[in-house]
Amino acid sequence: MPADVPAAAEPKRSEHQDIYAVIDLGSNSFHMLMVKVVGGSVQVIGRVKRKVRLAAGLNENLVLSRRAMKRGWECLALFAERLQDIPPQNVRIVGTATLRLARNVKTFLHDAEHILGHPIRVISGEEEARIIYLGVAHTSNCEQNRLVIDIGGASTEIIIGQGFEPLKLSSLHMGCVTFLDGYFADGLLTEDNFNAAIAAAEQTLAPILPDYQALGWQVAVGASGTVQAMQEILIAQGMDETITLERLEAIMQQAVVCGRQDQLSLVGLAQERKQVFPSGLAILIALFRALGIQGMTLSGGALREGVLYSMLPQLQETDVRHRTMASLMVRYHIDQQHANRVADMAQSLAQQLSPRWALSAFDGLSLLQGAALLHELGLLIEYKNHHHHGGYIISHSDLPGFTRAQQQLLMALVHNHRADINRELIAKQTMTSVLLTVRLTRILRLAVVLSMRRRHEALPNVTLSGKGEQLVLQLPAGWLDQHPLMRAELEQEVQYQQAAGWELALQ
Asked: Which of 167, 191, 211 has its CA nearest to residue 285?
């Protein structure tokens, strides 16, 4: 082992039986993810990422250079310090494409395992694709056939699956590091360089296309740094989170205008992503063109999450959103009986307005139910501004099963479920139309007010109807006179909605 790289310290007896660590030795970066199991879900307590660019050290004879191995060993020495207090059975370490290809991989693994004090498992391309799909399935909600794309440093995994079952798996020898060295080695961002990289990727894809097109899919998600970088760029440039071929080609033209790799400057592109972004972008464009992908969003997980959940059989709940909701309700001590009462009332009101209000669009009814279940999330902090606290918690939490745009819609609904209405939050939604967000907000607010007695037998039988955006809430004859506090709350709600420009009448 190199003299300047320390070995792992002698492991200490650990009491942290609920802490887990996964290390992914990727071709571009090494990642370490550390989590703690809390309230039936995972809570991230640490992430460490280092750009190692291991694939750049692989020559034409598939021999990994000593310099690249040394970069890897130095990174693992940092990781080793964090592993000392984690039970060995709670640690998993996997190697991917470059370590699969390297003829001298045993040399690297011998010293790497000594440094870490744990075995390293080099997984096959098909196994990597399978684990990536499981990571996506455990962090994203989808009942239809789903296409999953993960562009790594030296390989690209393409999977079609349904639920938690991968149906078609492929791992192709193309990645953002290998394509950077192969097609952008001169540092120039020209159309010729991009076109050469795109054509090479399309050629690599050609043999698998018939099987994938025959199987088909309804939803496409990306699980790579390239896809995350693209989504960050789109949002920073004032668009929604959906990646399309037209938008990819527009971003490519922005890169070409920059001219050189060292002068690449795109609004929304993080500094750490600049080096391999052009090559990753070229591969992504080829994937969209060859597979005919209409739109893609970012997944909440991939390889590391797939490895992690394989260690956690107690978290194998197949309904990802249900698991997320249940965990938040436990962790923040939400009154589950009342939350369900409000959710039921919200669904009842929504059904009375459907299909005229088209609330099922963009998964609206499911998100309305989620917001109802979480509307008292901030009560653990304090009452007066608990709707603001709840919105903040949602906005800054990991919510497996929800895309970032869906998470922001949940935040806006919870923030606006009572008191003054923040129209600016509603206008900022990127997942759906402002009109649908307004409609969901109005229904949630009425459900909260109507359930305020926190007793099922106290719920009034109401009819909610309307013409256009004008709503009429009809209650049983004499009910308002018999419930003066509820009448005052409902009249106050009429004023709140009128102040926001929404018409609501009581009968």
From this structure: 191
Listed residue (371, 363, 369, 415) closest to 389, CA to CA: 415
239-244 contact pairs (CB < 8 A, 24+): 239/430, 240/405, 240/430, 240/431, 241/297, 241/298, 241/403, 241/404, 241/405, 241/430, 241/431, 242/295, 242/296, 242/297, 243/284, 243/295, 243/296, 243/297, 244/288, 244/294, 244/295, 244/296
pLDDT reading at 392 higher than 80: yes
Helix or strand or coil: residue 436? Answer: helix
- Residue 377: alpha-carbon gap to chain centroid: 21
Query: Has residue 142 got a pLDDT over 80?
Result: no
Token digits of residue 465: 């109807």
- Name 493's bridge partners: none
* Angle at which helices 336-353 and 434-450 cross, to 10°: 130
Residue with token string 């929800």: 402
Residue 161 near residue 138 (C-beta atoms within 8 A) = no
Answer with the residue of higher pLDDT: 137 or 319: 137
Closest by CA position to 100, among listed 207, 190, 178: 178
pLDDT, mean of residues 394-403:
87
What does the pLDDT read at residue 430? 66
Average pLDDT, the chain: 90
User: Which residues make beta-bridge pairs with 58?
Assistant: 64
For the cut 90, the answer to whether the pLDDT of residue 225 exceeds it is no
Backbone angles phi, psi at 387, to 5 degrees: -70, -35
* Cis peptide upstream of residue 484 (ω within 30 degrees of 0): no
User: How far apart (Å, rounded) are the C-alpha atoms in residues 394 and 377?
Assistant: 9
Predicted confidence (pLDDT) at residue 399 exceeds the cutoff of 90 = no
Tell me the percentage of the chain whose pLDDT exceeds 70.
95
Look at residue 467 in the predicted model and tell me its pLDDT: 85
Q: How many CB atoms lie within 10 A of CB 429?
A: 21
- pLDDT tens column, 169-206: 999 999 999 999 999 999 999 999 999 999 999 999 99
Q: Quote the CA–CA distance of 293 and 285 in Å, as a whole number.
A: 10
Distance CA(454)–CA(457), nearest Å, equals: 9
HSE-CB for 297 with a 13 A CA cutoff = 20
